[in-house]
Every structure is written in structure tokens, then in C-alpha cells.
């Protein structure tokens, strides 16, 4: 009986390690964001399927949707509500798509961030106000940015993460040439 218990424990430990290693190998990283380009696809690689089930359960095929996650800003520092951030999309470089895109803030337990204006995401349909040069700034912070409320994505006071989702992504997303801009801490 003890041998069975030890065997089961070893399977969980080794299996978890293998999934963790595969998860790191599957990630495509850029500017503090990461994505799993293989999730949503049908395949026989059990480790890939395990990673996708844990990281993005119910993920669509990439032609339907691509998802990026950010736990860190573009400089590699943990996202925390103790700092204010800007996510700036350069002119004409909003996520290319044939449907819509959104950026959502979450607590680290993957629940939506409670906030006084009940805004949980911003998107191309949110009425974001572009800058004079055509770029779009999204203000990610736990207090309202004076004069920029329309572009505010509320953050909690503690650690948080962001999801960037693009539905019916354009060719530059699908071929990997599009890179989301970094989340930049405001000094």
C-alpha cells in the first residue's frame, strides 16, 4: 500500500514539473506580455493540452481569438496598484482584428477588479479618446486619472494582472509579427 501512495505522489510531482516546463516552453513573450499560440488547437501532445487546460481553459483556436497575459510591466516589475501605468498603442497600431479587442484587469486570483465605476475592461468600443497624434493611452491605476477618465482601466491597490484579448485577429497577430506595447510605469 505504501508503494502505491509513493507512486501516486511521484506522478503528481513529476507531472506538475513536466507541465510547468512545457508551459514555459510554449509561451511567446514580448514587452512583458505572454501568450500561448498553441492553445485552442486540437492535438495529441498531452503536455500541451494540460498547459492549455490550466492556463486558458476553453480557449478558442487562434483564428477566433488570441489572448495575452501580463503580470509584469515592460521593465519586468510586478504589476501592482501601488504604481500608475500607461499602456500606449502607437498611432494606427491598435490590435488588428475583424471583431473587437479588450484589455481587462484582474486580481491575481483571476477575479475581476472591484472598482467604483464598475468598469472591468476597456476596448475599441469603449469610447477611448486618442491623443492628438492618434496614439491611444490606457491609464491603469487605482485612482481616477484627472482628465483621462474615459481611458481609465481601474486597478486594485495590490498585485494584479492584465489580459489583452483580440477576437478575429488580423494576419499580423496570427503570423506573430504584431507585438502588444509594453505596460509602462508612470513616474
Concise overview:
By secondary structure, this protein is of the alpha+beta class.
Question: Can you walk me through this structure?
Answer:
The protein has helices spanning 2-26, 46-55, 171-174; strands spanning 27-30, 33-36, 65-70, 84-89, 97-107, 121-123, 136-141, 152-154, 160-169, 183-186. The protein has a single domain (2-186), classed as Jelly Rolls (Sandwich). Helix 1 crosses helix 2. The longest helix has 25 residues, at 2-26. The strands form two sheets. Strands 1-2-3-9-5-6 form a six-stranded antiparallel beta sheet. The protein has a four-stranded mixed beta sheet with strand order 8-7-4-10, with no helix packed on it. It has three helices and ten strands; from the N terminus they run αββαβββββββαβ. The chain is an alpha+beta fold and 187 residues long.
